[in-house]
Structures are given as structure tokens and as C-alpha cells.
Amino acid sequence: MDEFNIVLAGVGGQGILLASEILGTAAVKEGLNVRVSEIHGMAQRGGAVVSNVRIGDKVLAPTVLEGKADVLLGFEPLETLRNLKFASEKTLVLMNDETVPPTELMRTMKKYPGLNEITEKIHRFTRKLIVVKAADLALKAGNILTRNVALIGALAATGNLPVKVESLEEALRELVPAKYLEVNLKAFKLGFEAVGENKSSRF
Amino acid sequence: MPNLRVLLSDEPGKRVLLLGNEAIARGILEAGIGVVTTYPGTPASEIGDSVSAIAEEAGLYMEYSTNEMVAVEVAAGAVNCGVRALTAMKHVGLNVAADAVMTLAYIGVRGGYVIVTADDPQCYSSQNEQDNRFYALLSNLPCLEPSTPQEAKDMTVSAVELSEELGLPVLLRTTTRVNHTRGPVVYGNLTKPKLKGEFVREPNRLVMVPANARPMHVKLLEKAEKAEEISEKSPYNTVVYKGNGELGIICSGSAYNYAAEATSLLGLDVGILKLGMTHPLPERMIGEFLKTYKKIVVVEELEPYLEMNVKAIAKDYAPTAEIYGKMRRSYFPRKGELSTRAVVTGLAEITGKKPPIDFGEIDSKYAEAVKDLPSRPPILCPGCPHRASFYVIRKVTGGKAVYPTDIGCYALGFAPPLSIGDILICMGSSVSTAQGINKATGVDTVAVIGDSTFFHAAIPGLINAVYNNHKVTLAVLDNLTTAMTGHQPHPGTGTTGMHTTATRVLIEKVAEGCGVKYVRVVNPFNIDEASRVLKEAVQYPGPSVVVFRAPCTLMLMSEKRRKGIKTVPCRVTDRCTNCMACIKLLGCPAITIKDGKVSIDETLCTACGLCASICPYKAIECGGS
After folding, report:
1. What is the pLDDT of residues B458-490, one digit of tens each?
2. Given an 8 Å threshold on Cβ–Cβ distance, is B17 in contact with A43?
3. Closest to A45 (Cβ–Cβ): which among B45, B412, B592?
4. Domain A4-201 is in which class?
5. By C-alpha distance, which of B330, B329, B331 is closest to B351?
6. What is the residue extent of each domain of chain B?
7. Which residue of A has its CA nearest to B260?
8. ∠ CA B25-B30-B35 to the nearest 5 degrees?
9. Among B15, B176, B379, whose Cβ lies nearest the Cβ of A46?
């Protein structure tokens, strides 16, 4: 495999860095070459966060080229839109429907765009869109902070990843502190089942 | 987050996914470094943090020093006793340390010494995007530039060897995309760190009075010449691809990654000279490369450091060489971070090849899709005590004072609705710029600075205010940690990088010791008391200091989680008139509008109570169960 590109986009605090690391660790476990590129520091304080995971023999650059994402994993609808430049008609967009309204919207009393408007804009780039209720799944698993792992589970169920489900689970076991492991494994499973079994979540 | 004990593994050949900064920490263990000093700063912070997490077990000493200059000086002492050391800092940290570094180059080292400068193209978390390769040129110190986490580790080890071979400190220059990229790293052998050395009196070498400095400058130039010979043979300077002789690319660091992918995307059969040791440059190697190709393209991030040097070398080796880069005619950007796209675009222009991707089409389609998309800049966290401090400062001064600010989370206070932050230059600049502004205008100035930044760079400025009697108020927003860079300890916290307890240096005592007559400590969440004190401070006829002390909410919340203490979020009661005061005055991300009504997001609220205390209708309830 030459390259497989994943762009993860959301808001600081949603667990994007851990999700990226799970993907990267799973790749290394399978002996694959990988680059995971993150932005730390000021950018993390409740601001827009983007992380890139690139897997494959030919991968050198840390960042994904415009139009070359195989997967756009959106943790938040507006942030999914903000990263559409990485998408093409070949891209699978897997999006959490949980909205985090920017404070600018509050102050200016503007409305957060509706889900229909958002999906319409995504459809201009690709028809391959799956919407997941990751926050609900995380709460069902027992902790809202596991939304990131629920999304990784959902992504694994699409069969679109170049790494095995077992490797992802193994990475999870390695990266998550023992006392939070059970709830995370549950979130992973719920995410997996949500996409694997509930076809109605597909657009 | 990863268990950093993986860095301690004594299994050479083991392949692990590491962040560039963690890879440097592993390199420290493989190189047998005994002393690590640092001042945290993005994108360098995780080097010190990783070492701090494992230092005791690894048997080495690490410290968070007060600032980068102190960090270099502590290490300079150790390396001149024969102990190996590394100092990590962000690019602008090297400006602070430069005074020490420039002369340490004359003195040299006995134990290997690496200075990591982590540059931040694109200013992801910095006030500028200076290119620190020029410090290598300025100081005559060797410079290594990794392009991957693997190279970051390998070069840390090589830098120590190089440093001992030459008797010089070596710069390891990284960029954000190396520091904050994870990649597979194959381990080498661990070396037991040597912690104890011996101080040998050599005043002619170590005491840089003019009579000693002059001959030591000559020695430095001799070492630099030797370094150039090493650079000619360095395995880090290599022709990676030979190509068909048409086009030759010269690049270094992260730029190599983009260049290699860009040429492959364009289907170009090029020669690539990848430079990992970028000072001194291998003149003969570059000269021969220039002679081999019809066209030469220099691909590099930020300033045309390589291009200037390559053009100077071309004058002697290949005077008619066609060299493309960013000087005069710019094929690549001189600002921001480089990308595969930027390199594809530049190479397409130079070669006349059509890029395989229509970027213009993507851009216009994208611009249409994100039209009116609200921005999401970083903001103060829900429950952040700085929000309360800013509210008090604004309330007391009515927005009529000038508010110089400083480097840290609180710089985010410049944004509406808090709007406290009128000028920001560098660490410690708040207190001193306030003095000039007050002198020039007579307007009240309230300078804002954080606790760690206060210790780092504000004390001479504060003494200046006392000595020259400047009427300024310094608000120290003391959240008891170095929050922005990941909660490192500092002199005011009572703990060290080795996780031992330390004497707490109190900001109020320092201010009093500097001669400030009006010094008070307040809790920013106690709005009435804090306002009364700040008002007094602003009216005080000389310099005044108010310490707003409350712990960082991230730290507080994680402690609560650890102890199993539940947070009961604040609630909006039916007394709420939807006046929006909370939203318009505080900009707290936990306060939202749901179905046209003010509502508190239970997952974000930390129950700090600020909104409850400022609500004109007492319509928000905090506390209780």
C-alpha cells in the first residue's frame, strides 16, 4: 500500500490526539510505516484541532495534501466542513453529529447551521458520508470522554482502514489507563456496532 | 496518553511509535546524557516532560530552569565538568539564551552538549516564526536538522558525539512538524548516564575576559573548520536520489519530506541532496552537486538560509548554475510552514509540468463551502480563573486603561468579550512596555503576566519600574502552574522536574523584595474584594502589584477526578431574563444558547461560579447538589 490518509478534525478537548495515536500505534503494530501529525499548545485551548494520520510505504510528509484524504473523521460538524479541502469524491466522511457552538456564535446571536445544510455541503465533495451519534454512544458506554474511541470503533466497522480491528483494540489497551480501559472498550464496541449494524445511520 | 516508560526499554532494535520530542528523550538515554535542562515552550515542551517522567528511573538529572538562559548556563557548568547535557527550548527561547550561547561557543565544552531549538513555522503557538539556522551561522556552532522522529533520536546521539569530537555545543534544530509528528522509531543501545564529573581550573579557557576571549575566538574558528570537514563526510548529508541529471534539489529537515513526495507526484526524475548537517555546510559536496545538474532547486522552510549559502558556493564551483528558490523570484513561500502543495506548485512552475491535482478548483469549491463558517480560535477554558481576573480588570478600569499582556494562556484575553491585551512582544514585555506607554501618554496601564512568565522574565522590568518610579500596575495571574505548555512546575509551585519538593518562591515576596510598596494577593473569583484591591492598586502613586491567585482549572478538575469528587454544574433558574450579560461579558464556552434561552452545558461547566456572581438577576445557581 502506497498511502492511506486520515484527517481527524474537531475541537480541542474532544480526544483527537488520542484517537490519532490509536490509529498510528495500530499501524506500527502491523509493521506499517506511519506519520501522525498533531498540533499542541495554544491551538488546543478549545480551538479548532486537526490531526493527520498517514499510513503506507511511500509516506514521508507529515500532512495530508488537499483532496487526498481517504477518510475525514469529523468530531464536530463545523470542523468537518472546515477540513473539506482534504476531501474528494473518493473520501469517506465519518462525522460525529455532536455540535460544539463556537463562542462567536453565542456572542453574535447567530444560529448553528442545521444538519441538512451541513450534509449538503459535504455532499458537494463526496456522497460517502456516515453520521454517528458518538456522544450518545460514549454516554451509553459510561463516559462522554470516550466519544473519540466510539468514533474509531465506527471507522473500523466501515472496513475502510488498512489496519485490523484487533490491532486497534490492542493499541487501545496499550494507550488507555487501566481504570478507563473497560469503558473505552465498550465505547469502541458500541461505535463498531452503530455503523456495522444500523444502516439507517447512513446518508 | 502513552506510558513513557516505553522510552526506558533496553531492547535495541525495538520499533515504537514515538512523537519527535519523545524520540529526542530516547536519544538522551541512548547518548548517556546526565543533565537535562529546559524551559517549557511549544513545540519543545514534551522533550523536558518526557525526561521528567522517567528521569529518576533512568538515573539522570533534569530541571525546569527559570528561563532558557539559566538553562544553558546550568548545563554549561555541567558540561565543563565532563558531564553530558542537553538543553531544550523553543526557537524564541534561544533569543533569551543567546547571550550565554554566543560566548559558550568560545569556551567550548568537555562533555557533549546539545542545544535543541524547536522552531515553529506557521506560528502555531508562538509570537514569531524566526529561522534559527541563522544562529548556527552567527555562533559558528554545528547544526543538525532532523526530518523524522527516527532522525530526531539518531541525531541527538550523533550531536553528543560531534560535540565531544569538536569540543563545541551542537544545535539540534527541529520544527513543529518534527517535534509533533509521531513516527516509527527503532531503538539503539542505552548508555548509562554519567552524573558526576570534575571541575578543572582552566582560567584561560573558561574566563572570558577580553585577553582570553580573543585567542578563544581563533580556537572557535579552527573548530569550525574541522566541523566543515566532518560535514563533508557526515552520513546525514547524502545524495538520496541521483535522477537523470536535469534537475537537482537541495533540501533539509522537514522540507525533504515535502520535496520527495512532490517530485514523485509530478513524476519528476530528480536528484535530491538531503542535508542533515546544515552548519557548517559541506561546501565541496554541494559544489559537486551543483555541477551535476542543469537546474538546481533549493527547497527549504522559512528563510533562504540554504539558498544564500548554495549561491555563494556556486560562485566558486558552478558560476553559471541556474538556481531556483525564494530569493529575488519566489517559487516557494518565505513565510508559514512548507507543504507538499507548496513544493508541487513551485516545482510545476520551474519545470512547466502540470500538477496532477487542480488546487485552484479545490480552493474555489472549498471557499464556497466554508463561506460564513464561524471561526473557532483558541479560548480560555470554562472555569479558567483568568476569565475572572480579566472581568475584574475591565470592570475596575472601565476599559480606559492600556493593557500590555504577555506570553501564556492569558494572551487569549485580548479577544472579545474580555478584550484585555493591547500589546504583546515577548516573555516579560508586559511590565516594561507598560512603563513606556504610561510615560508617553500618562494613561493608566495595567500589565498582565502569568506566574511562570513572571519568574522567567519580569523581574528586571519590575525593578525598573521601582527604580525609575513608573506608575504601572502589574497583575500577575498566578494559576500555580505553567499551564499553556502542559502544566510544568515552576519556582512558585513548590515542586521540581524531579518530582521532589522545593522551596516555594512567592511572587508577592519577590515584588516586595524588588521594592514595590503596594503588593496584594487576591482570589479572582472573589469579585468584590479583587475589584476593591485592584482599584487601590491603579490609584497608587507608584508601581503596584496585584497577584490574582487561583489554580488552573484543568489542573483542579483533574485533581477532582483523581479524588473521585463530583462536579455539580451551575444551573440557570427561571429568574433568568435572557439579558445575556453572562454571554456578553464572559465568553465562557460552557454558557450556550439553547432554544433561544441561556443554558449551561453540563459537560463543560466546572462550577467555578463566576457567571453566578456576575448575573444581575442572580438567576444562576452554583454549588449544592
Report:
1. 999 999 999 999 999 999 999 999 999 999 999
2. no
3. B412
4. alpha beta
5. B331
6. 4-233, 237-357, 385-558, 566-621
7. A60
8. 60
9. B379
Which CATH number describes the domain made up of B385-558?
Answer: 3.40.50.970
Task: Please give the share of chain B, as a percent, with pLDDT higher than 70.
Answer: 99
Cα–Cα dist B337/B391, whole Å? 36
Q: Is there a contact between A101 and B15 if contact means CB atoms under 8 Å apart? A: no
Residue that the C-alpha cell 552524573 belongs to: B195
Whole-number Å distance between alpha carbons of A182 and A188: 10
Residue B576: its pLDDT value, please? 97
Are the Cβ atoms of B180 and A174 closer than 8 angstroms?
A: no
Domain segments of chain A as ranges: 4-201
How much is the CA Rg of chain B, to the nearest whole Å?
A: 27
| Test mutation, A16, A22, A42, chain B, max B CBs within 10 A | A42
Which of B254-282 are b and which e, b meaning 16 or more Cβ less than 10 Å from the residue's Cβ?
A: bbbbbbbbbbebbebebbbbbbbbbbbbb
Q: Please answer yes or no on whether B183 and A34 come within 8 Å at the CB atom.
A: yes
Q: How confident is the model at residue A197 (pLDDT cuts 50, 70, 90)?
A: low
Same-fold call for B385-558 versus B566-621: no
Contact across the interface for A39 and B183, Cβ inside 8 Å:
no
pLDDT band at B237 (very low <50, low <70, confident <90, very high): very high
Across the interface, do B357 and A66 touch by the CB < 8 Å criterion? Answer: yes
Closest C-alpha to A60, from A83, A38, A37, A40: A37
Going by DSSP bridges, is the β-strand pair B277-279/B295-299 parallel, antiparallel, or unpaired?
unpaired
The neighbour count for residue A55, using CB atoms within 10 Å, is 26
Fold (CATH) for B566-621: Alpha-Beta Plaits (3.30.70)
Taking an 8 Å cut-off on Cβ atoms, the answer to whether B181 and A35 are in contact is: yes
Q: What is the pLDDT of residues B55-66, one digit of tens each?
A: 999 999 999 999
Flag if A41 and B340 touch (Cβ within 8 Å): no
A16: nearest CA partner in chain B: B1
Which chain A residues are closer than 8 Å to B342 by Cβ? none
Contacts of B340 in chain A (CB under 8 A): 61, 63, 65
Chain A residues whose beta carbon lies within 8 Å of the beta carbon of residue B366:
84-85
Beta-strand runs (E) in B176-231: 181-186
What is the number of CB-based contacts under 8 A between chain A and chain B? 174
Per DSSP, the three-state class of B139 is: helix
Q: Which residues of B78-96 are buried (b: 16+ CB within 10 A; e: fewer)?
A: bbbbbbbbbbbbbbbbbbb
Which pLDDT belongs to residue A1?
A: 82
What is the rounded average pLDDT of the residues B260-281? 98
Res A200: pLDDT: 39
Assigned C-alpha cell, A71: 477518510
Element (H, E) at A93: strand A92-96
Report chain A residues whose CB lies below 8 A from the CB of B375. 102, 104
Q: Are B409 and B483 in contact (CB under 8 A)?
A: yes
Domain B4-233 has CATH 3.40.50.970: yes
Model ipTM value: 0.95
Nearest to B357 among A44, A67, A125 (CB): A67
DSSP B93: H
Residue in chain A nearest B589 by alpha carbon: A103
Question: Please, what CATH class does the domain formed by B237-357 belong to?
Answer: alpha beta
Q: What is the pLDDT of residues B319-361, one digit of tens each?
A: 999 999 999 999 999 999 999 999 999 999 999 999 999 999 9
B339, B359, B374: residue with CB nearest A63: B339
